Amino acid sequence: MSILKNKKYYLNIILIVISKITEKGERMDIVALQLCQHYKYNEVKQALKRNIDDLGGLSKFVQPKEKILLKLNLLMKKDPEEGVTTHPIFVQALGDILTEYGCQVIIADSPGGPFTKTLLKGVYKACGIEGIAKSSGFELNYNTNDIVRNHSNALVLSRITAMEVLEQVDQVISVSKLKTHGMMKFTGAVKNMYGIVPGLIKAEYHFQYPELKNFSNMLVDVCSFKTPILSFMDGIVGMEGDGPSSGDLRRVGAVIASSSPYALDVVACQLVNIDPMSVPTIQRSVERELIHKDFSRVAIKGYGLGDFSLEPFNTPDIVDLNFVRGRAPKFLEDPLNSILLPKPVFDPQQCISCGDCKKVCPAQVIHFHNKKPYADYKNCIRCFCCQELCPVKAVHVKKSFIKKLFF
Fold first, then answer.
1. Which CATH number goes with the domain that contains 120?
2. What is the pLDDT of residues 222-242, one digit of tens each?
3. Which of 13, 72, 97, 107 is the most buried (most CB within 10 A)?
4. What distance in Å separates the CA atoms of residue 265 and residue 225, rounded to the nearest whole number?
5. Structure pTM?
């Protein structure tokens, strides 16, 4: 009997060990990575299908007859080939996969500017989304109502204003674009969810949280308020330099997916040779233990990073408003910040005097003289919304030569 008891004892130990190993395996964040060089429907669709298979199949995340909201990156009225917005072929391929599975697809975003039906119509049309929605039978969201909800897991944004459509769907899938960003250095799956905040409320949050740490914590709060069940990234053609709207296009040839938006952003950064820990949203995700600090629990399936061999992306020079805090006497902090921080500058030749920069400025520091914009840099919070939403790329981010020289 004692031998039998010992066998049972050791068997239980083995089962516990296996259970622990399984638990560790379940905690791994899988990021599916596929090569895809062109916006050809069949090529993109096959890459997306392989991504979904690598993540365990659609049935692991959604069920037939569910309403699925595809949260795109539709920053502004831009032709798809300008690389500012999620490409319509990417959206159509993903939407068709979901429709064929039996889901109802709803497309939504809150672009820059006021959240109105007129603006949404213009953005959907200009970005090529209206056409693919019509041909594939997707629903375009025109509900511009908002909701205000408590957010118990938030660090800074304990009460959030969001699009009402979030409460009219079963699941949310993020469909972001691989781009650099003037304030956050990189914009990916996490920051893409900022678009669930309607219209000019985003500008209010910019003004409320002007410092990098608080602002990036707020972005993580927004993402965790309605964490997408899946996140996909259109990395076929990315944007480097003065992203997210005025940068240079780079062919990356990648389609990326994960159930973790935080892990997806890490892999996307590694893919284009951006240090993930230099991106504020990833820093906050690590601090909040949404992702392991050494990324050891991120596993890539499909293709490997070495299959791409990309030159490092040219990235914006992001600097916190408190860059000189602790480095200089208190009375010199404001003057030095004004000199050392990058700032938006306006090209009078390129400017069309539309006034969009003034409308979207959270700090209201832009004024017009002789139909040309000027900024009060003393009160500028360096959010670069003016640069981000200028329709003709007339706003540039000027880096400080002195900062480069001394820091």
1. 3.40.50.11440
2. 999 999 999 999 999 999 999
3. 72
4. 18
5. 0.88
